[in-house]
Amino acid sequence: MSTAAVRILLVDDQPLLRTGFRLILESEPDLTIVGEAGDGAAAVEATRGLLPDVVLMDIRMPGVDGIEATRRIVRDRAAAHDPRVLILTTFDLDEYVIEAVRAGASGFLLKDAPPEDLISAIRIVADGDAIVAPSVTRRLLDRFASRLPALREEGPPPGLDHLTDREREVLGHVARGLSNAEIARELVVSETTIKTHVGNVLAKLGLRDRVQAVVYAYETGVIRPGAH
């Protein structure tokens, strides 16, 4: 992680919750709160002006909700500023969560998570990783598969034809929720080799992290709901 403090924007329509998050996060020397917003529209504007590294985003707010705000923030990101969105939710299996991940969120966390989990999640997301375990994302996709676009039947979707056979195989294992170590054991190769394959898959498909790769695999039919 960079020696510079992680810049955080707090977004929640309840001032008391924002105050609680601020008290928790400001006790950490490597985290700093650069601003707050009470709704999605204000969050988008604040992100443009304050350039946070991580946006801690409530998913349900009046007006522009957390999903639409996430979509706008990800769409607006400049090359020099790529903020990560960490969604806060009340329920771990919520259809709004999968919509937020599809919109570009780097993960989600329960609002009642212990303070140490919140702090850890922010650091992980700031480092460019996803905080949602692919296995959790898969459970979400299996449950809410009907909300996904119709799967393609006319052949490989755009992007898949750029992957090697081994990269497609690795993508399938990622979509099943396997870690790099588990995939390495499955394919009898080193974990470093799998890490390289995963990086190539993300780069070729223009995906930000493993969570996005799981969503892509479901949307394109690489893996079907309920498959094992």
From TrEMBL:
**Is the DNA-binding keyword given for this protein?**
yes
Q: Which residues form the Response regulatory domain?
A: 7-126
Where 4-aspartylphosphate occurs, the residues are 58
SMART domains to which the protein is assigned, alphabetical: HTH_LUXR, REC
Q: Does the keyword Transcription regulation apply?
A: yes
Q: What keywords appear on the UniProt entry?
A: DNA-binding, Phosphoprotein, Transcription, Transcription regulation
Instruction: Note the PROSITE patterns from the entry.
Output: HTH_LUXR_1 (PS00622), HTH_LUXR_2 (PS50043), RESPONSE_REGULATORY (PS50110)
Give the stretches traversing the membrane: none
> So which domain of life are we looking at?
Bacteria
Q: Which residues form the HTH luxR-type domain?
A: 156-221
Q: What is this protein called?
A: Response regulator transcription factor
Lineage at the top is:
Bacteria, Bacillati, Actinomycetota, Actinomycetes, Streptosporangiales
